[in-house]
């Protein structure tokens, strides 16, 4: 299966029911969890083959990340505010980004489902993984 085309501007439409539980597992306090639950981030994704630039904008913060699929990169983990090594790869048409620095860090999968961008974030914990899905519509 070919890699998906993630190009474009995307706006958050919904978080699933596990979003707050996921933020708790990430060690995020109640005040920031409440703000994150009300935020409506936008993603601006530029994809040129396997080269990506992802600009995330919200009332809480903005962050730009650049990487090439299959090549390790360092970026700030927005959930914990520290730099981590990440490895992006394709799993069919899904973009999978693994945290290489922390076995209990956050991994991200992006895929296109029914014209929507679905981002699954997974926090690996000693008790098992905690995941949440965020669904974005194209602007």
Task: Please characterize this protein's 3D structure.
The chain is mainly beta and 139 residues long. The protein has 2 helices and 10 strands, in the order E-H-H-E-E-E-E-E-E-E-E-E. It has helices at residues 19-25, 30-38, and strands at residues 8-15, 42-48, 51-57, 62-68, 73-77, 82-91, 94-99, 106-113, 116-125, 128-138. It has a 10-stranded antiparallel β-sheet. A hairpin with a 6-residue loop joins strand 7 (94-99) and strand 8 (106-113). Helix 1 packs antiparallel against helix 2 (30-38). The longest helix has 9 residues, at 30-38. The relative contact order is 0.23.
Q: Which descriptors would you attach to this protein?
A:
2 helices; 57% strand
The biggest beta sheet is recorded as: 10 strands, antiparallel
Distance between the termini: 26 Å
User: Which class of secondary structure composition applies to the elements?
Assistant: mainly beta
Strand order of the main beta sheet, please?
4-3-2-1-10-9-8-7-6-5
Q: What is the C-alpha radius of gyration, as a whole number of Å? A: 14 Å
Count the helices. How many? 2
Low-confidence residue ranges: none
Overall geometric form:
globular
- SSE ordering: EHHEEEEEEEEE
Mean of all residue-level pLDDT scores:
92
Number of strands: 10
Task: Give the DSSP E fraction (strand runs of 2 or more residues).
Answer: over 45%
* Helix proportion range: 10-25%
């Amino acid at each position: 299966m070919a890699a998906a085309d993630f190009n474009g501007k995307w706006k958050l439409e919904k978080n699933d029911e596990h979003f707050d539980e996921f933020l708790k597992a990430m060690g995020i306090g109640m005040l920031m969890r409440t703000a994150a639950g009300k935020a409506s981030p936008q993603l601006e994704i530029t994809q040129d083959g396997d080269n990506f630039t992802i600009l995330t904008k919200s009332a809480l913060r903005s962050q730009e990340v650049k990487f090439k699929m299959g090549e390790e990169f360092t970026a700030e983990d927005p959930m914990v505010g520290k730099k981590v090594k990440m490895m992006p790869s394709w799993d069919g048409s899904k973009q999978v980004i693994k945290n290489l620095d922390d076995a209990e860090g956050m991994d991200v999968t992006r895929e296109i489902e029914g014209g929507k961008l679905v981002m699954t974030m997974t926090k690996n914990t000693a008790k098992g993984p905690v995941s949440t899905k965020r669904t974005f519509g194209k602007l």
